[in-house]
Amino acid sequence: MGVSKYNREGYYDPVPHDAIASIDKEAHPWRPLVYICSPYAGDIQANTEKARRYCRFAVDTGAIPLASHLLLPQFMSEETERDTAMFFNKVFLGKCEQLWVFGDMVTAGMAEEIKQAKRYLKKIRYFTEECEERHGSGN
Questions:
Q1: Buried/exposed code over 51-85 (b: 16+ C-beta within 10 A; e: otherwise)
Q2: Measured between alpha carbons, how far is 112 from 118 in angstroms, rounded to an integer?
Q3: Which of 30, 43, 72, 118 has the highest count of CB atoms within 10 angstroms of its CB?
Q4: Do 6 and 13 contact (CB within 8 A), yes or no?
Q5: Over 80: is that where the pLDDT of 139 sits?
Q6: pLDDT interval class at 137 (50, 70, 90)
Q7: pTM, two decimal places
Q8: What backbone torsions phi and psi does residue 37 show, to the nearest 5 degrees?
Q9: Who contacts 59 (Cβ-Cβ below 8 Å, separation ≥6)?
Q10: Bridge-partner residues for 98, per DSSP?
Q11: Quick one: CA dihedral 138, 113, 90, 73, positive or negative?
């Protein structure tokens, strides 16, 4: 719901609408939705902690992080539903503006996400495990 550009009598009156819209932008500035791409398999506990740290970094730098490998394991099985999860990842990635890749190692799942991001013509940014950007590694 929002404020209409028409007053109660039906006349065009954009001033209240524009004033409310400007307040919303000031209180909640635009942030890009970014897909967090980092290892999950292997040391799941350590990789989950790293993914949480990467998400915090994204928030602190003005982005909205989406880390499907933090979300999907809450209700899906890696062993029996991996193909479905990878399909979900492609859908999530399609909704994001950018793909942020973290760490030195690229797993098979990450490689698939990077490949898909290139198909979608998404901006890809690469970071170290310490969240330092690696320049010149993008698409």
A1: beebbebbeeeebebbbbbbebeeeeeeeeeeeeb
A2: 10
A3: 72
A4: yes
A5: no
A6: low
A7: 0.78
A8: -115, 110
A9: 65
A10: 34, 123
A11: negative
| Residue for token pair 């880390």 | 67
Per DSSP, the three-state class of 96 is coil
Q: Which two tokens stand for residue 41?
A: 């398999």
In sequence order, which residues have a C-beta less than 8 Å from that of residue 134 and are 6 or more positions away? 126, 127, 128
Give all strands (DSSP E) within 64-114, no chain letters.
64-66, 98-102
Does 35 have pLDDT greater than 90? Answer: yes
Using CA atoms of 72, 108, 40, 90 in order, give the dihedral in degrees to the nearest 10.
Answer: -30
Between β-strands 64-66 and 98-102, what pairing exists: parallel, antiparallel or unpaired?
unpaired
Q: Which amino acid, one-letter code, is at 122? A: K
